[in-house]
Design a protein that fits this description.
By secondary structure, this protein is of the alpha/beta class. It contains 19 helices and 20 strands. The strands form 4 sheets. The protein has an 8-stranded mixed beta sheet with strand order 4-3-5-2-6-7-1-8, with helices on both faces. Strands 9, 10, 13, 14, 15, 16, 17 and 20 form an 8-stranded mixed beta sheet that branches. The protein has a two-stranded antiparallel ribbon with strand order 11-12. The chain is globular and about 70 Å long. The two termini are about 40 Å apart.
């Protein structure tokens, strides 16, 4: 890119942002202007997407194409709409496997698997591509889908530049070093500070005296000793869900606060709007329905009217019988209370209504699965994590520090909140000390889970000799990390 073109794009980019360019954004844009591959690691809400948009704008100025990949269809759909607003609908397309819109556009948003399949098929669509954006590249440590990211990094033509966006990871330089070794010169740009400071809280209900405790997780930079003592004083047993007054043997009976108690506590403290994470689609629906049916009222008549305008606009093409079958009355009843569910099992139109209303500040509580922690732009003042463990299909597991940070990263809206709040609820299965360790961790190492997939093996067999295939497999990030572990 010429210096004049670079300056033009820098000026355009600065005009698009609601805030002045941060140091890491300037460094990342400079690396893109030099023609490097780039790894950008920064906290949620810090402005990583703006760096990708800079690369897209630079590509448009040269009359070339670029692809923007995301790990989720929902995120691809949102990114498509965002880029249409920024660059115009004639310049932006969408490919998610089951949706194809303007596929020959200069900028095409797609899921990562779509790009991998295009690459292996030798698609001519890649011939005019200058940049590929790999959003949420830390997904390469996902046990089931992670290899896709590594396959792209290894096999994508090195004439195509990569812009990799990641949540904060401690070993981003190692990822960049590996990419330099297997692909091309790669710059790493990191930012560790959140755009809005975060306060961590711990909530527990003491059944012994019917008292709700809302405690800071840390006091003076150290774990809260009151929370430690309270947690250690409680009997740890499976709770049936029914409150029993009184205790025995001098042991406290502790319980997870109910969802209504949590919402009321946040409302009283001015900590709404909130995203309330529940790792179950069914329970997200149940939580929204129960909260609304309890008669809670979190929004004004003016907000209700604004929500109905969004509802009418989004559902105008639906037949009344279809809406009835989809349970639209209950859905609207929840919205009018200021609450709503959000998960991948919802009707897309309903989910989009929730997203638009929440972004506009019209909803106060969204009960969501963890997919809302990945990329979808719905910042809140507070984030609630109901259970620190979730079922992975085999057993219950706790999130790693990086996943925990993804969840809490939604707390605190830049330009609106002075501080964000992360609230973890007491659980009989997890000690307070474990919660504090997660909340206080500052190390989030990215570990590869690479394994040869069927697609990759089929591609290697059709294109390479046995020795070439072996050499290609040895290029994985997993092998790179193992080699460095051995050396260390």
């Amino acid at each position: 890119m010429s210096s004049s073109t670079s300056g033009d794009v820098h000026g355009w980019f600065a005009q698009q942002l609601a805030f002045p360019l941060d140091r890491f954004q300037r460094e990342a844009c400079d690396a893109i202007a030099r023609g490097d591959d780039v790894v950008v690691a920064a906290p949620t809400g810090r402005g990583k997407t703006g760096v990708a948009e800079y690369a897209l704008a630079a590509t448009l100025q040269r009359g070339r194409r670029s692809f923007y990949t995301t790990p989720l269809k929902a995120l691809s759909n949102q990114k498509f709409h965002d880029l249409v607003d920024l660059f115009g609908d004639e310049r932006v397309g969408l490919l998610t496997g089951d949706v194809a819109i303007n596929a020959d556009a200069s900028i095409v948003v797609m899921t990562t698997e779509v790009l991998r399949n295009m690459m292996y098929a030798g698609s001519s669509a890649l011939d005019e591509v200058d940049y590929v954006i790999l959003d949420e590249v830390h997904f390469l440590q996902d046990a089931y889908r992670g290899p896709v990211w590594e396959e792209i990094i290894i096999h994508l033509d090195t004439s195509i530049r990569l812009v990799c966006l990641s949540a904060t990871v401690s070993n981003a330089p190692q990822l960049a070093e590996w990419m330099t070794e297997v692909r091309y010169r790669t710059a790493v740009v990191t930012e560790t500070t959140r755009p809005v400071p975060l306060e961590n809280h711990y909530m527990v209900f003491d059944k012994t005296n019917d008292r709700l405790h809302f405690l800071p997780t840390f006091v003076g930079g150290a774990v809260n000793r009151d929370a430690v003592r309270l947690d250690e004083s409680g009997a740890r047993h499976r709770w049936s869900g029914k409150r029993q007054r009184g205790g025995s043997g001098g042991t406290r009976k502790l319980a997870t606060p109910t969802r209504l108690e949590v919402v009321d506590a946040l409302d009283e403290r001015g900590m709404l709007p909130a995203i309330y994470f529940i790792f179950s689609r069914r329970q997200c629906d149940e939580a929204a329905s129960m909260t609304a049916n309890a008669g809670i009222q979190l929004i004004s008549q003016e907000s209700q009217n604004s929500i109905m305008q969004i509802v009418d606009r989004r559902l105008e093409d639906f037949h009344v019988d279809d809406l009835s079958a989809l349970g639209v009355e209950q859905f609207i009843h929840q919205l009018m209370s200021g609450v709503a569910p959000h998960h991948a099992g919802m009707v897309p139109a309903f989910k989009e209504i929730v997203e638009q209303a929440f972004i506009a500040g019209l909803l106060k509580v969204v009960f969501a699965t963890e997919t809302l922690a990945v990329g979808v732009n719905m910042p809140a003042t507070s984030v609630v994590i109901e259970k620190i463990t979730k079922y992975n299909g085999d057993h219950h597991v706790a999130p790693n520090p990086g996943e925990f940070t993804q969840l809490t990263g939604r707390a605190g809206r830049r330009g609106l909140d002075d501080v964000g709040h992360a609230v973890v609820l007491w659980s009989p299965f997890v000690r307070y000390s474990e919660v504090a360790e997660l909340a206080g961790s500052s190390t989030y190492n990215l570990r590869s889970v690479f394994r040869p997939t069927f697609n990759m093996v089929a591609n290697l067999v059709s294109r390479c000799s046995r020795e070439e295939a072996r050499e290609m497999l040895m290029l994985s990030f997993a092998q790179y990390q193992r080699d460095h572990d051995v050396v260390r």
